Amino acid sequence: MKKLGQHFLVDRRVLARIGDYASLSEEDRVLEIGPGTGNLTEVLSTRVGTVFAIEVDPNLASSLEGRFPNVQVIRGDALKVPLPDYNKIVSNLPYQISSKITFRLLERPFDLAVLMYQREFAERMVARPGTKEYGRLTLNVALRAEAEILERVPRGAFRPMPAVESAIVRLRPRESRIPVDERAFDDLTRTLFSMRRKKVKRSLAAMRISPAVLSRIDPDLLEKRPQELSLEEVVDLARASSGN
Hints:
This protein is of the alpha/beta class. It has eleven helices and nine strands. The strands form two sheets. Strands 4-3-2-5-6-9-7 form a seven-stranded mixed beta sheet. A two-stranded antiparallel ribbon has the order 1-8.
């Protein structure tokens, strides 16, 4: 299973707390990505109306099918398969798809997500401006949702044991999207943090932003470095650079 990035959560206390964090009820339709051997699936199935479990490994998918009456197993790659109709997401995510699957999930409406990540990845998601962890991931998550680390999980809670610690993160989508061109925002953050030691004005020059546009941006903002920028300031820069 190592090639699929699967580390199965076996600590029953952690599994139970994940269910608690998600505030589950029989009305919930929960998406689980990477159910593996079904340890978390079992917890979910006792608390909710329906679980949609997406599993890429055919042997694991077969072992889950028919095991729980309210669990629908979806065979395939969670990055590619059509997603079902759910209102919550609860998963011990395969580490190697953390970024891609998070942003796929954030494209669709949901009430709440409780997700397991590598601790380093989780800390980058919730980082504060001015810290070394703060970067493109932080801003792109913050544009779409509020992220909170609920607890850190030791390596010994998994089998096989991963090389790093993990963390449980709760995501709450923003009630309304921040009005900004998300493609322009993404392009801007990519450039800013590929040149994170340079001042903002250097990054915008690299993007060939016209002098006329630059003249309309607060000069103090242009003198900052990327890790010093707040979400609101990056949104303002993205609007200016895209002409909005």
